[in-house]
Design brief:
76 residues; mainly alpha
Length: 76
């Protein structure tokens, strides 16, 4: 037969473990907006949002324009 003191201790131990586990999920941000601002700030600090000029985007745009002009000339 299980003694009451062991059962009570087990229950208290489980409640303590649950409280500790819930505390691990606590968030340091008070709102999602605050989280987003911090995330963007950190990414900017790492250089993630730096816009690179030139490169493939200009080349693709020119190729697209030439293709459209070529189609218009071909169909008229």
């Amino acid at each position: 037969m299980i003694s009451r003191s062991n059962t009570r201790n087990d229950i208290m131990s489980l409640e303590t473990a649950a409280a500790v586990a819930r505390g691990g999920f606590a968030c340091i941000f008070s709102s999602s907006d605050e989280y987003e601002r911090a995330l963007i700030k950190e990414r900017r600090a790492r250089g993630r949002y730096i816009f690179s000029r030139g490169g493939w985007s200009t080349t693709i745009l020119i190729a697209l324009l030439i293709t459209i002009v070529g189609m218009v000339v071909y169909w008229t």
